[in-house]
Design goal:
heterotrimer, A mainly alpha, B mainly alpha, C mainly alpha, A: mainly alpha, Four Helix Bundle (Hemerythrin (Met), subunit A), C: two-stranded antiparallel sheet, 12 helices
């Protein structure tokens, strides 16, 4: 048990520190790197919750695909001009801090004051099983088959849309 | 296996449109003549789906583990979306060629957006609401910028995308909070536990965020900033569909998903919110529209005002108001599509012929179009015997029944204000001396067909409103 | 005590795997040079040691003694970080490769894999998708246009081919009904090798593996006539050696994955029917795994010295318009097989 707590503190610290560092870096590429580290720490936390599938997918999708595309754009942009654009916007900073504080308070309220989940079974083994690939696959293809298929159409539409907007030739 | 086929049959409208998406992709890739085939193919799909939905209204229930409901009012919405899309395709055929931006993807995206709307209308689960909403919105973001050569089309597309994503963010955050407090995404469970949940501050916050996100989509007052620019910049036919199908889909979620809540306490919790956005939207839309000279912009503000009228019904929150909003949506869809269809036909290439002054003397150049435009304007301003009148009538009556007389009076006042700018179009068309160098209007059979069909429907629902409203009421639980 | 023994076994396994791998990597370089020499009808390294057998060590010492140059307009931190990311990714992947069946030693069962986790295949996919970072960072942080171009090319290439690789792996998962590498190997008993059942998937995964490891004919990130040295143009000394090592380590990983997923892993057809002793069976199985790997590695090298380089647009076209549809076709093929034969 204590080993899990040590790991939790370890990942949680990395997640918290890297997210703060990410926001405060002036260089967007550095921010991106710390965001990737943050994703890793989150993946570790998911793993501690026995949600292996979510954990790996977090790495594959966010760290492996989305952030790479982000980096692409950042690397091709001139990062120096980017810095000028963002510095000296005091109002935005204050607004962001207030908003962040608001969200933080909300989440703290959620954790400490809201009612514990009733639908969660007290059976620990069952809840551990819920995170496995097999169980998620079963749920996706039985109970949630319709949202799953609909998401397929969503991706198809997004792909076609991107093609229309990006294709070079006009007819 | 039998059960399986039965389930597919129950949601056949969805399956039809989904197959339509696939087949249209295949046609676009495989056929050289796709430019000729695709529009008529999509019209066929839309009409078929619409007719199927109308003839299967009585087959009600829920499918796929309570993810989706079918039959009844859901199918009325399905039929509405599909008819609206069919009319849009008819008037698009010539229009997008005018801007030299024919892409086969246009029709694929139209089909997908209708699929999204249908998923929204039938959703019994917050997942489905979200996926449907995203499917519809993403198609609209792209469709808005389909005239890629036009700078303001690009602006419209980007603006719509940024603000729309922001709104989606609200919806998702709201869903997260609702899930966090209700421990489920099933709307059925949420609705049945609504009484106890509405004492939970976080749940109310979540619902409010959810509603704010949808207020964006229905273009209600404090969240309307995108409307004028997007409607003006987008392709006219797309603006028509966005303002009607998009609005109807967003309302359908509020009505069908949360409709069961209304007789209970939901309306009491959220009544101030709905009443406020209703009052502000009506007045703001009607007053600002007066100063607009661009017809698309004027209709954009009118769309904000109409969202306000419909929101009165949400504030009232009783059975009559749900039926009233649905009737209003049907009426608004056809009259607005008709108006946008006419604008699309009169519009010249490169954003010309959109100003009010370009309509001077239209009655002599094209008597049919101007007569129909006059009809739509009368209907939009809410004059009897057109469908627009009865839409407002039902909603206002429901407000009075719910002790919201002040809101109904405000609605009447803003309707009176709006008469000015709607009738101004008619005055320009019929009673102003035409200038000699006015641009000609090209005849375009498909566009005229679309407008005539809309006009027939507007008149029909205006003369026989009872049939539709009784039908809708009979399916309300 | 039990915990200590288990930790000891795990540590021993890690040590053995890492050592063997490092040795293999250095000798892979040697063999690559030897085989290329053979293909081109020359001698290859033959001065250091017996037929040049000590050449890898000489190379390593040379690289160690070289000066480490960091360009003045480079981002120092990321510049030094990049090779470590690449190395980390390629080493960490070894954790889930099964190189033999369970064996009994001193009364306890030992798995011949560092970790047989039930998301093994996904873990490999996750790590390979991270491999892009090392190259991208190296390209960007060097502050040189050649490096940047190399980095961008490599990321685009790896992202494109990851898709077809993922789909060809999906076919295997469909058949074995598990993401556990050990279970995947066990499902290929006898001659039920996936390469024979789903040949299209085998072709796509091999081609994708070439692209993922940046090997010829897909070595555009480091195409020397166009980009000097690609993403590692500005690297020298041990940092360069890091990339060099990682490239060969990735080759080994790719071949190990191909063997595990498609060539029956450590399975030797029908060996349990021969009536051999337990230990001998296990030994033959481990050897058969190594042999298969060696053959795939030889194929890698053979192709490199036989086929010319693709043009970049050809590479992308091949990835998206040929390999991607083919891998989907393979998925449908496997699904149809399962439907028809109820495997």
């Amino acid at each position: 048990m204590p080993f899990e707590i040590i790991l939790f503190v370890f990942f949680a610290l990395i997640a918290a520190v890297s997210s703060v560092v990410m926001v405060t870096r002036p260089n967007p590429v550095m921010s991106a790197i710390f965001l990737v580290i943050n994703f890793f720490a989150l993946a570790g936390l998911y793993l501690l919750l026995h949600a292996q599938f979510i954990s790996v997918v977090q790495v594959i999708v966010y760290a492996g695909a989305i952030m790479v595309l982000f980096l692409f754009v950042l690397m091709l942009l001139n990062s120096k001009s980017e810095q000028k654009l963002l510095s000296g916007q005091k109002k935005i900073k204050v607004f962001a801090i207030v908003l962040a504080a608001f969200v933080f308070i909300q989440i703290a309220y959620l954790i400490f004051f809201s009612s514990p989940s009733r639908s969660l079974s007290p059976d620990v083994a069952a809840s551990i099983k819920a995170g496995t690939v097999e169980e998620i696959g079963r749920q996706l293809y039985t109970g949630y088959i319709l949202p799953f298929e609909a998401a397929g159409f969503l991706l198809l539409a997004a792909t076609i849309g991107a093609l229309v907007l990006a294709k070079k030739k006009f007819n | 296996m039998q059960n399986h086929f039965q389930e597919i049959y129950n949601v056949l409208p969805l399956v039809l449109v989904a197959c339509g998406v696939f087949l249209s992709v295949v046609i676009e890739i495989g056929s050289v003549k796709s430019e000729k085939i695709l529009p008529w193919f999509s019209v066929l799909v839309f009409l078929g789906t619409s007719l199927f939905s109308v003839f299967n209204l009585n087959n009600c229930g829920t499918a796929y583990n309570n993810m989706l409901s079918y039959g009844g009012n859901v199918f009325i919405f399905y039929s509405l979306f599909n008819l609206a899309a069919a009319l849009t395709v008819l008037s698009s055929m010539e229009y997008i060629k005018k801007y030299g931006s024919y892409f086969g993807e246009y029709y694929i995206l139209l089909l997908s957006s209708v699929l999204g709307m249908m998923l929204m209308a039938g959703a019994r689960d917050l997942f489905m609401v979200f996926i449907g909403l995203e499917l519809m919105s993403i198609c609209f973001y792209v469709l808005a910028g389909i005239n890629r050569k036009k700078q303001n089309a690009n602006e419209a597309s980007l603006k719509y995308f940024l603000l729309g994503s922001f709104a989606t963010g609200f919806v998702v955050y709201g869903i997260a909070l609702i899930f966090g407090t209700a421990h489920t995404t099933s709307l059925e469970v949420i609705v049945s536990n609504f009484g106890s949940l509405s004492h939970n501050l976080l749940f109310v916050t979540g619902m409010l965020l959810f509603l704010v996100g949808f207020s964006f989509k229905i273009a209600a007052f404090p969240f309307h900033m995108w409307v004028p620019d997007v409607y003006q910049g987008s392709a006219t036919t797309v603006s028509g569909l966005m303002s009607t199908g998009g609005k109807a889909a967003a309302f359908s979620v509020l009505l069908i998903a949360l409709g069961a809540v209304f007789p209970g306490n939901a309306a009491n919790v959220f009544r101030p919110y709905f009443a406020a956005i209703a009052a502000f939207s009506m007045l703001y839309g009607s007053i600002v529209a007066i100063s607009q000279n661009n017809l698309k912009r004027m209709l954009a503000y009118s769309s904000i005002a109409h969202a306000g009228y419909m929101a009165i019904g949400l504030a009232a929150g009783n059975r009559e108001s749900v039926a009233g909003i649905m009737f209003y949506l049907v009426a608004y869809t056809f009259m607005n599509l008709g108006a946008f269809g006419i604008i699309a036909m009169v519009e010249g290439a490169d954003d010309t012929n959109l100003e009010l002054k370009d309509y001077i003397g239209l009655s002599q150049r094209h008597p049919l179009l101007s007569a129909l435009m006059a009809l739509f304007m009368f209907s939009l301003s809410g004059l009897p015997p057109f469908a627009g009148f009865f839409g407002k009538y039902y909603v206002f009556i429901s407000a009075i029944k719910a002790d919201l007389t002040w809101l109904a009076i405000l609605g009447v006042v803003s309707s009176v204000i709006s008469v000015y700018f709607y009738l101004r179009v008619i005055v320009y068309m019929y009673f102003k001396e035409p200038e000699p160098e006015a641009l000609p209007v090209h005849n375009n059979a498909n566009g005229v067909l679309a407008v005539v069909i809309s006009a027939i429907l507007v008149v029909m629902f205006g003369i026989f409103p009872g049939t539709l409203i009784n039908l809708i009421t009979s399916y309300l639980r | 005590m039990e915990l200590l023994i288990q930790a000891g076994i795990a540590l021993a396994k890690i040590l053995i795997v890492i050592t063997v791998m490092l040795l293999t990597v250095s000798y892979l370089v040697y063999f690559e040079r030897k085989i290329s020499a053979w293909i081109q009808n020359r001698r290859g390294p033959n001065r250091v040691g017996w037929y040049g057998a000590l050449q890898p060590f000489a190379d390593v010492f040379k690289l160690l003694l070289k000066e480490d140059i960091v360009p003045s307009n480079a981002n120092k931190f990321i510049h030094s970080l990049a090779p470590f990311i690449t190395l980390f990714v390629s080493f960490a992947t070894y954790a889930v490769i099964p190189f033999g069946p369970d064996i009994k030693l001193f009364g306890r069962t030992i798995q011949l894999a560092l970790a047989d986790v039930n998301i093994g295949v996904l873990y490999v996919l996750a790590l390979t998708s991270l491999g892009v970072y090392g190259l991208t960072f190296a390209g960007w942080s060097s502050g040189s246009k050649y490096s940047l171009l190399g980095g961008i090319r490599s990321s685009a290439q790896m992202i494109s081919y990851e898709v077809s690789m993922g789909f060809s792996i999906a076919g295997v998962i469909l058949l074995s009904e598990s993401l556990r590498p050990m279970a995947i190997v066990e499902s290929q008993y006898g001659f039920m090798w996936n390469a024979l059942i789903q040949p299209i998937g085998f072709i796509t995964i091999v081609v994708s593996a070439f692209a993922e490891t940046n090997r010829l004919p897909f070595d555009l990130p480091e195409a020397e006539p166009e980009l000097v040295g690609g993403y590692h143009t500005e690297y020298s000394s041990m940092k360069f050696a890091g990339f060099f090592l990682a490239e060969y380590a990735n080759m080994i990983i790719a071949s190990a994955m191909i063997v595990t997923l498609y060539l029956g892993g450590w399975q030797f057809p029908y060996i349990d029917k021969f009536g051999l002793s337990m230990g001998l069976t296990a030994g033959i199985q481990v050897l058969s795994f190594l042999l298969k790997m060696a053959l795939v590695l030889f194929f890698f090298i053979w192709v490199r010295w036989s086929i010319p380089r693709f043009r970049y647009d050809q590479l992308m076209n091949l990835g998206w318009k040929v390999m991607f549809p083919l891998s989907l076709l393979n998925l449908i093929w496997v699904a149809a097989l399962i439907m028809i034969f109820n495997i």
